[in-house]
């Protein structure tokens, strides 16, 4: 009986993987459902086990069973890991994703699983924390805070009990790495959390998954049950979000787990000292925790050995939007943005020139091709006025209107604001209104209203709704002031980072914001 | 005192760690406890940082973003409210950059706020307006045509305050005040982002929500979103007087805020040591009775209680009182008259009434309403500890690890203390509730009792002794403490007694109805859970074994070493505003002020020499004895100040018969109360707003009552008593209550240091305040008991004679509700009736179903003493076999039902246990209708002009 590997990842299923799997099963094949390899242009991907390894075909449809089994299918790809898209990667975290049965305990162990946990548990907690510190791992959620230092704070905190919380509320548009890992290699995350539990003295962990990820929720729950005895006495449970983007902010996430309104907490106190239920809490992104088993099993040096500057190890970059080779590309830091977009991504799917890419989700900055030499590195991106965030890259061709994208950023913030702090709560709505005025003024420059004469006329005028200057230049100036208030006044990154897409669009693409705008200021 | 807003430092003080840190704020070096916020540090140093969402009675929140500051070496602009100070920190609170950011934030606020300041009720008293001025906002460049939250409908449902969501700035202060200060969690923020709105409960209006109308949200609101209706109606106040609330024994202090002579609002005073700036619906809002049309402002007399009242001059009324009492004494003897002091009047007034009786009537026939509430506390705690009062201040509860509440319902009866207790419970203290009824403390938002022992009414002693049994037999007692502080031999006697097998939780389970394992667990928790404090109420005292129960409580506390330091103790929650004071002032027939027995020759000599008369050395009559003597024909005249014995005392028929048998009943009160139906002279009283004096609360705290407005009736109550005394021939010449307090101090060792200048300076004093304790005594019995060695008293359980049987199979117990106070004379004359318009009978669904009773149906309630009708409320708060009602409404007259059984030691009535039957009814009983008709008849008034 021929063994066939087909992904059960949500993206693959969306492209028809279930039908394909059904067709192969009906044809008498043994179908193993794996995670996704991570290149969507070849999904649904079918891998056929042969004496010379797993031979890939993709995309295939349910009608292609015979051609695939005969080896004659036109989309014969050969060995997947030999494809340039994969050969160029450094898969530390995603090594097993797409290869193994996500819920196969034996498969996981056979592919190096649990080695990291066993090594960790044979060492004192401080040694584990030291290893993570030495690896240079930084928070993959976006802030880039050194993971080992966070763990050290929790380890040193005198209060008990302590908790491990995994932030799997992956809400950034164009990102999917957390989901792919949870669907494709859930034990890896569990192992990482169990290691964290040992390292800081926590006995229980929560995985907070957004409700939009039903496959990931099911897979994680099943994996937790299957691995319960393996990770005992450490225990885990899944908590499902309720659709609020802001609950990806760590303190709002903690409030949400506690059953409260998902609203951002002021810091201090740090969650490491007073987090979930007021107890010391490690709260890390899926990718941070999933990097840990590799670090423990292969050693901190193996991980720190790749990277760039202070950004060590690999980053699972997600290519999305108008891009030819959309998918997950795990690589050491230091690759340039241009290489990722043009060489790996292959440019736009529409074939038109790339005009802008947004890096780091809806709160990330827009980069024009002139900045494509920026190396993928936390510090380099900050210097260029942007952020890496969760490493999602969304590509736009030359048909994009950056003023509309700036409006979208404000609208996104207005829709997702928790409503706690004033700059974000009111500012985002005012930002949408400003962008509407700017977009309207681009086509017809409105005449400045004439002030009425006489004392009474002026007094009435001061309350007139149309007295404000709605010219593109005046509104652009107001937009900059608003962004300043939001960036420096907001309580959390939602309001604080919304100015990144807005100001980068304005600075790099001033022509989209109306004719004759003044020269942009350097981004702060 | 002129009108000034109290300083708000923005965040609460840091938890004491004893360590200070030094920092620089705007170049000024300041050292403060670690954990203090930058905002508070700046404020204490005299620099006010703009703020809207911060208030020093709430945890910091960090939402308004006006309080941003610069800190050297730190990126960005941290919020000063959420950033703690650190050693060597250099903070700038003012810079061009900060000005720009704050102005930017304020511009956003005002872009979604109506610009109707001139016609806004909060004009001149609005933090948003003030802060907009402070940050120098001059223009809103966003215009006024964008999205807004304006134009939403107002919620006028609460009788005392309005909610106008259009003016809301979403600072969450109201929500946080409801959560953190009041602990009701009635408010929430609903919606997100720009649509974020305050919502009472689940989008309800305020009145139908879980809101208890404590006013914390109104006080917290920085705008006119939540504002007192009275401010809307009258305008903002222009002056304030700090005074003490005249409702329950918590003793909250308020700023009475006035506009001219008109009282605009009562705002809880932050410096008040009992309430720390919190309030309840009664003290905060329910003061309208003071101006109610029912209030009697002219003295009245009549020959017979069947006559209408005749308004007369003060001179005539006073002369009538003096001559009637002298005639009665001449005819029936010196002891044929007496008086009742008021637990609602001031210490000074109470002192004068008992002085008038002892000095002027020449007997000791004085009693007070404590007879029917906490007389067993006086007896029990005096016997065991040596002092007739609670051992702690209220703040002590914040140090407790275990809180045992027995026979008390603080969230209804003592709401401000109840909120404080809930704060401590939310911090993690464990709670044990012993109560037949599932009170709110047993389970409500974020509070849940570890153990609820729902005992059968009347079995307190059995349950407490069973707990003692566990503590003794499992050796959980504190032997070192007992050997040092108590009489060891008495302890051994007691421990042998409680250890007997038939007193174990298992042995008494059938009797008490409480599961033995719960009793064991509760006893272990109380004995071993750290600082354990007991709070109790009338569910302990108003029983035939009331005094035994108090002593059983004292035994538990002594055996576990839980007396004599902060966080522990035995604390009666006193019912009325000055019931502690009334007891302290010598209102009992056997005691002078300071609880000295009338047979004590040295004490008596002290008073005799001060007052220049010979005093009776025999204790006088208690209230029930006076009534008995009246029906026997030997007691003929009663002077009653501020007390409605007909409604509040048990067995109404008996009280009425006693009053009817008297020749002269004088009632001094605000209203024609039920007792006044049997009175011959009515002397109109003054409210707490109209006089100076002092009240003493449940923590022995003596606080100033200050005159806010002139007495509408013409005289303060102390002046009226003085007029009567003078008419009796006594040489009294007090020109101010402070002179009365000086006399109290001179004659009462525990009050020796209490003078008005000291009270003004300290704010309040907790007695004993004398040379040994110049600043008063927050915690009693530190290092040793007042009586010397703590005394263990054997408390054998004796079942009450009031037993259920086939005719009366249910047990009735009574209590009160948040919105009403005592007999309701005040609160029924306020809009508080919106919450509780009538008394209802709580009955378990099983008992209701057995009788075919529907929720809301009229039912008859019968005991061997009497019958009344009221409507049923079907609830499982009460256990099967138990029914419950309140006694706030004279229409119901719940005390028609209660019997004349009483405490063996003090005659405190057994209100809490009456065997009853409940049946169908078509409406008020014949008796109720007759009574109402008689009351109407009795309240006819002939005005003064017509009388002439």
Structural summary, described in words:
The complex is a heterodimer of chains A (524) and B (948). Chain A is of the alpha/beta class and 524 residues long. In chain A, 41% of the residues lie in helices and 15% in strands. In chain A, the strands form four sheets. Chain A has a five-stranded mixed beta sheet with strand order 2-1-3-4-5, with helices on one face. In chain A, a hairpin with a 2-residue loop joins strand 3 and strand 4 (53-57). Chain A is globular. Chain B is built from 30 helices and 37 strands. With 948 residues, chain B is an alpha/beta fold. In chain B, helix 9 (347-361) runs parallel beside helix 25 and helix 9 (347-361) crosses helix 26. In chain B, strands 15-14-25-26-27-12-13-37 form an eight-stranded mixed beta sheet. A six-stranded mixed β-barrel of chain B has the order 31-35-32-34-33-36. In chain B, strands 20-17-16-21-22 form a five-stranded parallel beta sheet. The radius of gyration of chain B is 29 Å and the shape is globular. The mean pLDDT of chain B is 94. Chains A and B meet through helix 18, helix 19, helix 20 and helix 22 of A and helix 2 of B.
Summarize the structure.
Chain A has helices at residues 10-14, 17-26, 65-70, 84-87, 105-110, 115-121, 125-135, 147-156, 177-184, 186-200, 214-226, 228-231, 250-257, 286-298, 300-304, 337-344, 378-383, 402-416, 422-425, 427-443, 455-461, 472-489, 493-497, 499-508, and strands at 3-7, 30-34, 46-50, 53-57, 76-79, 163-168, 204-209, 235-240, 281-285, 307-308, 311-312, 314-321, 327-332, 354-359, 366-367, 392-397. Chain A is an alpha/beta fold and 524 residues long.
Let me know the largest β-sheet of chain A. 5 strands, mixed
Kindly provide the radius of gyration of chain A, computed on alpha-carbon positions and rounded to a whole number of angstroms.
Answer: 25 Å
User: Measured on Cα atoms, how large is the radius of gyration of chain B?
Assistant: 29 Å
| Fourth CATH level, the homologous superfamily of the largest domain in chain A | NADH-ubiquinone oxidoreductase 51kDa subunit
What is the count of β-strands of chain A? 16
């Amino acid at each position: 009986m021929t063994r066939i590997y087909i992904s059960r990842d949500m993206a693959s299923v969306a492209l028809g993987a279930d039908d394909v799997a059904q067709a192969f099963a009906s044809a008498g094949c043994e179908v193993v459902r794996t995670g996704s390899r991570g290149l969507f242009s070849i999904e649904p991907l079918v891998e056929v086990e042969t004496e010379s390894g797993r031979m890939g075909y993709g995309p295939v449809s349910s009608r292609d069973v015979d051609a695939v089994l005969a080896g004659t299918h036109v989309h014969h790809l050969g060995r997947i890991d030999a494809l340039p898209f994969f050969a160029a990667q450094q898969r530390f975290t995603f090594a097993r994703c797409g290869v193994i049965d996500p819920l196969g305990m034996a498969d996981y162990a056979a592919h190096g699983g649990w080695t990291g946990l066993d090594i960790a548990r044979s060492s004192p907690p401080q040694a584990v924390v030291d290893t993570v510190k030495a690896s240079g791992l930084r928070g993959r959620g976006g802030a880039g805070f050194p993971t080992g230092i966070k763990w050290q704070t929790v380890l040193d905190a005198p209060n008990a009990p302590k908790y491990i919380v995994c932030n799997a509320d992956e809400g950034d548009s164009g990102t999917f790495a957390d989901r792919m890992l949870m669907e494709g290699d859930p034990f890896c995350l569990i192992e990482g959390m169990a290691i964290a539990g040992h390292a800081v003295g926590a006995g229980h962990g929560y995985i907070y998954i957004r409700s939009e990820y039903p496959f990931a929720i099911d897979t994680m729950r099943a994996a937790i049950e299957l691995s319960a005895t393996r990770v005992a006495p450490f225990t885990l449970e899944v908590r499902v979000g309720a659709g609020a983007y802001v609950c990806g902010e760590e303190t709002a996430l903690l409030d949400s787990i506690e059953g409260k309104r998902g609203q951002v907490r002021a810091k201090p106190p740090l969650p490491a000292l007073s987090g979930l239920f007021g107890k010391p809490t490690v709260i890390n992104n899926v990718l941070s925790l999933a990097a840990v088993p590799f670090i423990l099993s292969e050693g901190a040096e193996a991980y720190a050995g790749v990277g760039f500057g202070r950004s060590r190890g690999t980053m699972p970059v997600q290519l999305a939007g108008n891009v030819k080779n959309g998918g997950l590309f795990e690589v050491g830091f230091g690759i340039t943005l241009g290489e990722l977009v043009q060489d790996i991504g292959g440019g736009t799917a529409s074939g038109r020139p790339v005009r802008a890419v947004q890096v780091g989700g809806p709160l990330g900055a827009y980069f024009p091709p002139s900045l494509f030499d920026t190396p993928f590195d936390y510090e380099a991106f900050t210097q260029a006025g942007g952020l890496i965030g969760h490493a999602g890259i969304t590509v736009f061709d030359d048909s994009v209107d950056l003023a509309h994208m700036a409006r979208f950023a404000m609208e996104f913030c207005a829709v997702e604001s928790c409503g706690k702090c004033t700059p974000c709560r009111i500012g985002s709505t005012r930002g949408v209104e400003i962008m509407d005025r700017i977009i309207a003024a681009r086509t017809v420059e409105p005449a400045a209203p004439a002030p009425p004469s006489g004392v009474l006329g002026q007094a009435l005028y001061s309350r007139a709704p149309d007295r404000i200057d709605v010219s593109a230049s005046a509104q652009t100036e107001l937009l900059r002031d608003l962004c300043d208030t939001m960036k420096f006044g907001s309580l959390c990154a939602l309001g604080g980072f919304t100015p990144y897409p807005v100001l980068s669009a304005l600075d790099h693409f001033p022509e989209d914001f109306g004719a004759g705008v003044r020269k942009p200021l350097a981004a702060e | 005192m002129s009108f000034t807003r109290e300083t708000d430092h923005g965040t609460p003080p840091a938890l004491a760690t004893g360590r200070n840190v030094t920092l620089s704020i705007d170049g000024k070096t300041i050292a403060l406890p670690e954990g203090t916020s930058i905002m508070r540090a700046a404020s204490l140093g005299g620099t006010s940082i703009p703020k809207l969402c911060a208030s020093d009675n709430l945890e910091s929140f960090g939402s308004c973003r006006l309080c941003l500051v610069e800190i050297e070496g730190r990126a960005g602009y941290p919020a000063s409210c959420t950033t703690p100070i650190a050693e060597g920190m250099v903070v700038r609170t003012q810079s061009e950059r900060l000005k720009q950011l704050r102005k930017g934030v304020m511009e956003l606020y005002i872009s979604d706020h109506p610009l109707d300041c001139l016609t806004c009720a909060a004009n001149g008293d609005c933090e948003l307006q003030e802060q907009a001025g402070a940050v120098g906002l001059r223009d809103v460049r966003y215009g006024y045509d964008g999205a807004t939250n304006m134009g939403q409908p107002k919620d006028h449902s609460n009788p005392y305050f309005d909610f106008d969501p259009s003016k809301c700035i979403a600072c969450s202060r109201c929500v946080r005040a409801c959560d953190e200060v009041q602990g009701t969690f009635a408010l929430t923020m609903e919606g997100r982002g720009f649509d974020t709105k305050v919502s009472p409960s689940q989008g309800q209006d305020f009145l139908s929500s879980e809101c208890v109308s404590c006013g914390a949200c109104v006080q917290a609101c920085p705008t006119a979103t939540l504002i007192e209706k009275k401010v809307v109606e009258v305008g903002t106040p222009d002056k304030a007087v700090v005074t003490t609330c005249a409702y329950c024994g918590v003793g909250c202090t308020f700023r009475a805020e006035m506009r001219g002579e008109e009282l605009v609002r009562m705002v809880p005073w932050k410096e008040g040591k009992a309430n720390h700036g919190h309030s309840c619906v009664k003290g905060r809002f329910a003061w309208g009775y003071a101006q109610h049309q029912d209030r009697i402002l002219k003295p009245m007399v009549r020959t017979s209680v069947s006559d209408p009242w005749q308004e007369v001059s003060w001179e005539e009324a006073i002369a009538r009182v003096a001559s009637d009492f002298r005639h009665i004494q001449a005819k029936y003897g010196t002891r044929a008259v007496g008086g009742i002091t008021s637990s609602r009047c001031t210490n000074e007034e109470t002192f004068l009434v008992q002085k008038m009786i002892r000095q002027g009537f020449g007997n000791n026939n004085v009693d007070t309403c404590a007879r029917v509430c906490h007389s067993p506390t006086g007896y029990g705690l005096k016997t065991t500890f040596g002092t007739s009062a609670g051992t702690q201040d209220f703040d002590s509860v914040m140090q407790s690890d275990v809180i045992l509440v027995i026979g008390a319902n603080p969230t209804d009866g003592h709401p401000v203390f109840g909120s404080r207790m809930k704060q401590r419970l939310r911090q993690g203290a464990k709670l044990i509730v012993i109560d037949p009824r599932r009170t709110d403390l047993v389970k409500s938002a974020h509070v849940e009792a570890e153990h609820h022992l729902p005992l059968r009414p009347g079995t307190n002693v059995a349950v407490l002794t069973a707990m003692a049994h566990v503590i003794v037999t499992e050796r959980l007692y504190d032997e070192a403490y007992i050997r040092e502080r108590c009489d060891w031999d008495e302890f051994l006697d007691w421990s042998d007694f409680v250890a007997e097998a038939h007193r174990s939780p298992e042995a008494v389970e059938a009797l008490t109805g409480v599961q033995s394992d719960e009793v064991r667990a509760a006893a272990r928790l109380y004995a071993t859970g750290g600082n354990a404090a007991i709070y109790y109420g009338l569910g302990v005292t108003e029983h035939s074994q009331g005094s035994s129960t108090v002593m059983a409580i004292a035994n538990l506390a002594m055996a576990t070493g839980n007396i004599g330091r902060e966080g522990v103790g035995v604390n009666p929650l006193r019912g009325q505003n000055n019931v502690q004071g009334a007891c302290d002032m010598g209102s009992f027939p056997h005691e002078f002020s300071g609880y000295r027995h009338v047979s004590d020759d040295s004490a008596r000599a002290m008073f005799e020499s001060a007052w220049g008369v010979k005093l009776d050395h025999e204790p006088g009559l208690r209230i029930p004895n006076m009534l008995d003597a009246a029906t026997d024909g030997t007691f003929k005249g009663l002077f009653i100040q501020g007390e409605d014995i007909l409604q509040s005392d048990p067995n109404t028929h008996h009280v009425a018969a006693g009053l009817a048998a008297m020749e002269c009943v004088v009632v001094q009160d605000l209203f024609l109360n039920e007792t006044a139906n049997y009175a011959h002279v009515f002397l109109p009283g003054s409210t707490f707003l109209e006089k100076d004096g002092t009240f003493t609360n449940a923590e022995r705290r003596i606080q100033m009552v200050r005159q806010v407005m002139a007495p509408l009736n013409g005289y303060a109550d102390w002046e009226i008593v003085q007029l009567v005394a003078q008419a009796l021939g006594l040489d009294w010449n007090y020109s101010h209550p402070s002179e009365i307090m000086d006399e109290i101090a001179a004659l009462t060792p525990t009050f020796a240091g209490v003078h008005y200048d000291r009270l003004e300076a300290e704010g309040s004093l907790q007695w004993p305040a004398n040379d040994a304790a110049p600043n008063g005594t927050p915690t009693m019995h530190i290092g040793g008991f007042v009586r010397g060695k703590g005394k263990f008293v054997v408390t054998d359980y004796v079942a009450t004679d009031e037993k259920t049987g086939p005719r009366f199979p249910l047990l009735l117990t009574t209590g009160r509700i948040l919105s009403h106070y005592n007999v309701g004379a005040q609160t029924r004359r306020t809009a508080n009736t919106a919450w509780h318009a009538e008394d209802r009978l709580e009955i378990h669904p099983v008992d209701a179903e057995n009788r075919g009773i529907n929720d809301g149906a009229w039912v008859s309630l019968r005991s061997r003493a009497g019958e009344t009708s009221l409507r049923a409320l079907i609830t499982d708060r009460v256990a099967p076999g138990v029914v419950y009602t309140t006694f706030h409404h004279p229409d119901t007259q719940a005390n028609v039902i209660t019997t004349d059984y009483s405490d063996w030691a003090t005659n405190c009535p057994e209100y809490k246990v009456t065997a009853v039957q409940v049946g169908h009814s078509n409406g008020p009983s014949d008796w109720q209708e007759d009574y109402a008709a008689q009351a109407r008849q009795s309240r006819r008034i002939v005005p003064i002009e017509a009388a002439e």
